[in-house]
């Protein structure tokens, strides 16, 4: 038996067995870092169930005011019009920790992709709700749709929007291009109208390009980060941001100046804030600080959700046009660093400024789809006509004359009682005690009373020809002697 076996195998067969064993060992060593050797269809589920070997966690928020993005982006005014309700944003990233209180009601059941030693190279499973070892995807999801906390210390741009997470278990930077393409297709199949891709690849890869083209053709608004390499070389493009139909987002700091790490190129469409942002952390609670274009892209995705929440009939192209046209320019106009400018959610939702942008572009038909009409400021009208002003002026003059004349009334009365001559009024000594002088003449005799005939009857002083026995006007017949009068 033994000799027969040697004859049948011979030296050639033994050599073939050694080569086969060597190839099998080489294959095992190459595939070992990817996944444990297991039958296809079970390896992905086994790896997905493994807990994170190292998980990023956060800390409690320090005491302070509202999240800076609320004021920087004018979100309070925007939330009066739209909050993102009814809109889902798909996030292809490291996963989302749905246990966090700020995301508890925002995350829907998504999917997970794990690389496996199979013909297609990956396996799709359902992710565990807490699976986000790197924390990158949780931070992105929080900036898009975190609920408003007490005092607005944390809030997403669209706090009532939903997030559909597509987790790359091995990390986006270590995933194959076929895996990334499958994840993008999965996001499109979920029905989410907005797709956030907060990663950048230095080169055009056919699987990713074709997947993005399918997403754009399906009417999904694809928003991608420009990348953080600080590249200013126009020949160096980052993908998927540089693909046609993708809204590429750069980053600025808190003052609105372009960040040095943010890539710049003609394919950059607009910018958002990306420096030292407070974001939601995985681990069930806590927060941390992050920087980069990934988180600027998340703000634009949230702004898109706000627009679609108010105007669900708009297409992806129309939403992108609104976001670009309403952006606040940096440095006076469009440039490679920030594109059209910093995203303005309020302007995008209201349509303010879109007519001006349409006029500049020569587009008069689609310049402001679904814009909220803004009424012209009314011209101030005069309060009174010229006739009314004249009448009031005359009336005011008469009233002033009356007021100024009131203090002179007592003097006029005294002068009349003296017969319009200077000097003090002589007391009536012969009047009965306790009685006041009789009243003046009636109004009908006023002119006669003023002619000086109210003098007392005195023979020595009465002019010649005066009627005898006539009593003076305004005085009784028993008036004091003329010697007591001070008349000249």
TrEMBL record:
- The protein's gene is named mycP
Q: Does the keyword Protein transport apply?
A: no
Indicate the secretion signal residues: 1-38
What does the similarity note say? Belongs to the peptidase S8 family.
Main localization category: membrane
Q: Which domain of life is it from?
A: Bacteria
> What's an example GO BP annotation here?
proteolysis
Membrane topology term: Single-pass membrane protein
Q: Where is the active site?
A: 93 (charge relay system), 136 (charge relay system), 294 (charge relay system)
| Start and end residues of each Peptidase S8/S53 domain | 84-341
Q: Which GO terms describe its molecular function?
A: peptidase activity
- Compartments reported by the entry: Cell membrane
- NCBIfam families in the record: T7SS_mycosin (TIGR03921)
Q: Where are its TM segments located?
A: 388-409
The record's section on SUPFAM superfamilies has:
Subtilisin-like
Question: Pfam families given for it?
Answer: Peptidase_S8
Task: Provide the residue span(s) of the region labelled Disordered.
Answer: 419-488
Protein's name in the database: Type VII secretion-associated serine protease mycosin
């Amino acid at each position: 038996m033994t000799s027969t076996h040697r004859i049948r195998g011979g030296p050639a067969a033994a050599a073939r067995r050694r080569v086969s064993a060597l190839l099998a060992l080489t294959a095992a060593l190459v595939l070992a870092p990817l996944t444990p050797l297991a039958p296809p269809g079970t390896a992905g589920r086994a790896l997905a169930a493994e807990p994170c070997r190292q998980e990023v966690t956060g800390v409690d928020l320090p005491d302070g005011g509202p999240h800076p993005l609320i004021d920087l982006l004018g979100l309070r005014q925007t939330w009066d019009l739209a909050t993102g309700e009814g809109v889902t944003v798909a996030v292809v990233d490291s996963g989302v920790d749905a246990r966090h209180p700020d995301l508890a009601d925002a995350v829907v059941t998504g999917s997970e992709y794990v690389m496996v030693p199979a013909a297609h190279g990956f396996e799709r499973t359902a992710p565990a709700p807490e699976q986000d070892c790197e924390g990158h995807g949780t931070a992105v999801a929080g900036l898009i749709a975190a609920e408003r906390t007490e005092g607005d210390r944390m809030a997403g741009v669209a706090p009532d929007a939903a997030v559909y997470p597509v987790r790359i278990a091995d990390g986006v930077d270590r995933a194959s291009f076929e895996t990334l393409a499958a994840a993008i297709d999965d996001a499109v199949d979920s029905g989410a109208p907005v797709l956030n891709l907060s990663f950048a690849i230095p080169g055009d890869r056919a699987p990713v390009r074709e997947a993005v083209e399918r997403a754009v053709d399906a009417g999904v608004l694809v928003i991608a980060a420009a990348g953080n390499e600080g590249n200013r070389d126009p020949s160096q493009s980052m993908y998927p941001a540089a693909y046609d139909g993708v809204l590429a987002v750069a980053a600025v700091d808190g003052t609105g100046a372009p960040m040095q790490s943010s890539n710049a190129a003609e394919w950059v469409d607009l910018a958002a804030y990306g420096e030292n942002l407070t974001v939601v952390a995985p681990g069930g609670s806590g927060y941390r600080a992050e920087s980069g274009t990934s988180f600027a892209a998340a703000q634009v995705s949230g702004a898109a959700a706000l627009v679609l929440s108010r105007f669900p009939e708009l297409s992806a192209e129309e939403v992108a046009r609104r976001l670009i046209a309403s952006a606040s320019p940096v440095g006076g106009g469009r440039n490679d660093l920030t594109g059209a400018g910093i995203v303005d959610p309020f302007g995008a939702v209201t349509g303010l400024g879109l007519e001006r942008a349409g006029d500049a572009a020569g587009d008069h038909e689609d310049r402001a789809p679904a814009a909220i009409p803004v009424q012209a400021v009314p011209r101030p009208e005069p309060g009174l006509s010229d006739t009314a002003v004249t009448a009031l002026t005359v009336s005011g003059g008469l009233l002033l004359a009356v007021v100024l004349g009131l203090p002179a009334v007592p003097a006029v009365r005294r002068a009349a009682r003296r017969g319009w001559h200077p000097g003090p009024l002589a007391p009536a000594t012969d009047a009965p005690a306790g009685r006041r002088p009789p009243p003046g003449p009636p109004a009908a005799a006023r002119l006669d009373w003023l002619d000086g005939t109210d003098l007392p009857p005195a023979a020595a002083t009465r002019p010649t020809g005066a009627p005898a026995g006539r009593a003076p006007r305004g005085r009784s017949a028993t008036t004091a002697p003329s010697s007591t009068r001070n008349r000249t």
